Amino acid sequence: MSDPAELYDSIREEVSTVLIGNERILEGLTVSLLTRGHLLLEGVPGIGKTMTANLFARATGLDYNRIQFTPDILPADITGTEIYREQTAEFEVRRGPVFSNLVVADEINRATPKAQSALLESMQERQVTIGGETFSLPNPFMVVATQNPIEMDGTFELPEAQRDRFQLKYTMEHLEWDDEREFIDRFHANPELGAGDVQRVVSVDDLLAAQSAVESVHVAEPVREFLLEVVTATRESEEILHGASTRATLSLLNATKAYAAIHGRNYVIPDDVLTMVKPAFVHRIILTTDAELNERDPADVLGTVVESVDPPEVSIGVPEEQ
């Protein structure tokens, strides 16, 4: 199953046996996985953030570790440490829970910035250094971090460098009335329903093949120019102090290719850029003091910036062989 669209449909159908609504979160998870990215998921407690990540991991068949971030967690609790063995008079490396295909950093912003920074090397370099020795992480490797809104008590805002390591950020909303009614009916009929009911529907080979397929998705020059114009607009906006970084630009480019692929296209259209720009940039831009005093929301500011850039014709994204 090397076709990204088939892979996404299989994951979505299997996860939907438990999960209802929030399909865009599954889209984002699949996009990040197929582009070797990481995803930040924000929402109030009890909304299903951790369950969504767990269901996704089970459907993809990835090794899954969950790390509960708390104010007293230490970097060694995440990456691992050296243990001294008296019997051999030697130090032994004990690998931490970050050594997994899919790592859920649960409530990441309840830990201190020092503990949060333990993920920087693994997310960027896909390796971990313990006691001066470097260890490679499994392939594929993905971090899905959940966080509570920063206005809640006991939270620490993620540093800019940490946020920039996440390819995409989504805010998980409450279910619509009809979806929540179906949800409670489903669990009323089967109280034991849970992540264990989701089966593996793809293999690691499928995922790696789909990743390669995404890399070959065509992005026409006018679409690339449109993407760069959007990036430049974030840097020139009077409401944005720091616009999208070069890493953010590449994240958006890769995200548009994966989004096109999971929807059955081997070429990117301007609408793909418009769809993915907010998840790719909303957590990266830093507003000016005036914008914050005016209680402007980063997503709203970003929407205004994007509207100021005229997209090219839709047909211009189609490669000649189409």
UniProtKB/TrEMBL annotation:
InterPro entries per UniProt: ATPase_AAA-3 (IPR011703), CbbQ/NirQ/NorQ/GpvN (IPR050764), ChlI/MoxR_AAA_lid (IPR041628), P-loop_NTPase (IPR027417)
Top-level taxon of origin: Archaea
All residue ranges annotated as the ChlI/MoxR AAA lid domain in the record: 233-300
Ranges where the ATPase AAA-3 domain occurs: 38-167
UniProt-recorded Gene Ontology molecular function terms: ATP binding; ATP hydrolysis activity
SUPFAM superfamilies tied to this protein: P-loop containing nucleoside triphosphate hydrolases (SSF52540)
Official protein name in the record: MoxR family ATPase
Species name: Halopelagius longus
